[in-house]
Design brief:
The protein is an alpha/beta fold. It has five helices and ten strands; from the N terminus they run βαβαββαββββαββα. The chain has a four-stranded mixed β-sheet with strand order 3-8-5-9. The protein is globular. The model has no long low-confidence stretch (mean pLDDT 89).
Length: 193
Amino acid sequence: DGITEVVLLLHYQADMVLDLIERMKKDGRLENMRVRSITEPAPLGTGGAINHALRLFGISESFLVANADTWLDTGVHAMLDTIPGTIGVAEVPNTERYGSVLLEGEAIVTFQEKQHSSGPGWINAGLYHLSPEMFVDWPDGSSFSLEQEIFPVLAKKSSLFSKKLDTEFIDIGIPEDYLKFCEWVRLGEVNGL
């Protein structure tokens, strides 16, 4: 039935996000959706923030993580049928801005950093299916990167997989692309980013 519960991991301008969530609740856009949030007093990194949420809310089942600065259209739905340890990947014409993901079949072999990546290829789309077991070795409150400290270890163990997303992808964390995205939404253009 799709997503029914969301946990927002916030730090920078958290009040603005929380105000938006309250407005969305009041006008019915979050009907049948449970939304909880954590505002970090100091940034914990992508891994540390997730680890803190797992412990604070007692999350024991697998879960999806989505970067807030990425638009993936139907990507979340595609990830619902994956197994924990899966990263959504998107094909782009030039990986230089993002770094690339090297695949063997569905397995993720390694990540190539931005400075060593160019040309067409697959990138980490910022959408993950994870499990609490991936975080057991990290103490609550520790700051660490999911992408730099958890994923490479899983890839070396052949425990990290890809889900090729056949969907629109845009990095709305870059002002130029965010404005392009806003124009795309305003015009109602579902395709053609």
